[in-house]
Amino acid sequence: MPTGSGDVSAERFARSRIVAFSTGNVYPLTPAASGGSFETDPLGPIGEYASSCVGRERVLEYYSTRNGTRIAIVRLNYAIDLRYGVLTDIATKVRRGEPVDVRMGYVNVIWQGDASARAIECLPLAASPPLVVNVTGLETLSVRAVAEHFGTIFGRPPVIDGTEAPDALLSNASRSAELFGPPSVSVGQMLAWVADWVMRGGALLGKPTHFEERGGKF
């Protein structure tokens, strides 16, 4: 049973396998060249949202230990589709001539379908204590480079705001790749799909990711 809730679900479905969504925001910012945080790294949430997600994980861990409930915790970073996500945020700003903030200069992204598939594939691996797995793309993408890529396609150089900090919110997805293989949709395919969607005026959800946020205020 995939879920994003905590104690109510864990108590009610104690005999079930549970996949619970968490977030890569539970990690601190890491050096851009590091490849991102591993599941075994110490947590360092920034801001109330990230802290609340750590709290959710702790509740699930408690019930898993107490009741023997088999749980997998998915720390998801930036799943995207055509209507929403970091790539769509950047592409839309470039297309409109709006500034692209590069202070959070590096990101991981994964296609929503691949993220959903990994969540389902975690069900048979759920365990007590919980399995923890980062779910995101394997590559560390430069926000500036992505903006410049879209600028080339749109025939409009991006307006860059700020300078890249040496660290960013990044997760290492090597465990996910070892368990499930690489994502089926490549970064190149995502970039091509998003660029085409934005150029054609495809529908957007109007929910920015705020990936630029470095202080945890979402």
Helix content range: 25-40%
Order of SSEs:
EHEEHEEHEEEHEEHEEHH
Shape annotation: globular
Query: What proportion strand?
Result: 15-25%
Question: How is the topology of this model organized?
Answer:
Blueprint: E1 2-3, H1 7-12, E2 17-23, E3 30-31, H2 47-67, E4 70-76, E5 79-80, H3 86-96, E6 99-101, E7 106-107, E8 110-111, H4 112-121, E9 131-135, E10 141-142, H5 143-154, E11 159-161, E12 167-168, H6 174-180, H7 187-199
What does this structure look like?
This protein is α/β, with parallel strands linked by helices and about 220 residues long. It has one domain: NAD(P)-binding Rossmann-like Domain (Rossmann fold). About 35% of the residues lie in helices and about 20% in strands. The chain contains seven helices and twelve strands. It has helices at about 5-10, 45-65, 85-95, 110-120, 145-155, 175-180, 185-200, and strands at about 1-5, 15-25, 30, 70-75, 80, 100, 105, 110, 130-135, 140, 160, 165-170. The strands form five sheets. A four-stranded parallel β-sheet has the order 1-2-4-9, sandwiched between helices. Helix 1 links the parallel strand 1 (about 1-5) and strand 2. The radius of gyration is 18 Å and the shape is globular. It starts with a strand and ends in a 19-residue tail after the last helix.
